[in-house]
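Supplementary notes for students who missed Thursday's class. We covered one full example, reproduced here. Read the sequence, then the structure, then the short commentary at the end.
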Amino acid sequence: EVRRWLAVRNFKKYKAMMKQRSFILTEILETERNYYSQLCSIINLFLNPLRQRQDSTLTEADISIIFNSIESVQFMSSELLSKLSAEHGPGEAFPPKACVGNIFIHIIPFMKSLRAYFENYDTAVAHIAVMKNRSPIFNKIVTTAEKEPACHKLDLSSLLVTPIQRVPRYELLLTQLNYSTPISHPDKPLITKACEMMKSVNFTINENMKMNAYQKKMIELQALSDLNHAISGSLTPAPPILLPHRRLLKSGFVNMKSLRDNSLQQQPACHKLDLSSLLVTPIQRVPRYELLLTQLNYSTPISHPDKPLITKACEMMKSVNFTINENMKMNAYQKKMIELQALSDLNHAISGSLTPAPPILLPHRRLLKSGFVNMKSLRDNSLQQQPACHKLD
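Structure (token representation):
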């Protein structure tokens, strides 16, 4: 009786799994037909008419930017759809012994080529907006085509995102199909392999898209850094941000609390994990020690046995922090003096003087202040702003 009960239970479980498997296979086929139909709409309603109406405002390069490799995507979907339809047969549902794992194993490696399409999508959407304003022919064809029933009231940008939405859908459907396929079914090992391959392809595409977005962000940060450095008037080049070993981990805004009035200011922040970012941590930590010890000393009662020790530690920390800051200032002034000496030598050489330039960089000299001064002409009393460097010697 126990064996019979187990056999009946396993048979019911097998039958329920096969019913669910048939439902998922039908969903894969139907959604692939809809997906292929949308790709055909993009090509027939948008791409082909635009190619036939090229002019000075609408070139082949513009079309390539917007419809980057969409025909390859359509061909891939066509191959998958034809093989799934052949496996489905003339009946209303897939045969119980139908195997689709080998079909996906054959198609999935070609999906890696979709990476270029995915990375180009943002550029394509931006170029569509540009072309609508620049080319009347483009605007007319696209606006007319978007009103067609085949577009289902979707604009061109929404249609172009379809392949990007389809790849994660493949992974979800294959995972559900693998879960609903009995272990004894001949398609089980093939579906399992296809599911793992699809996960790997989807992960690779997502990571490449993230890296591409981070690379664009790093280029923006480098351009902003170069601009700020040029505005500051520094003679040295801006420190490089865009380096091969650097990776952008996070960007956004942080609330910076002022030590003067405890006000909060929202400032952009970009966190990068590399050697230079890690090495700056001790420099940021030393002033933090002083701040924390000062707060601790303020919060410690006079009667507490730790009060004299905390007070002494606080005074020692202030002295260390002051010494470090003064040494850093002297180092910065020394670099400025080297720049001034190089500038002085250059100006002296340009003037054609035979005598050497007067030395600026001497051991007893200290830079006190640098900037610009208004020089008043004795001829016409006009004011001229000239760089000035005041040295104490």
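Commentary. The CA atoms of residues 33 and 390 lie 78 Å apart. DSSP finds twelve helices and four strands in the chain. If anything here is unclear, bring it to office hours.
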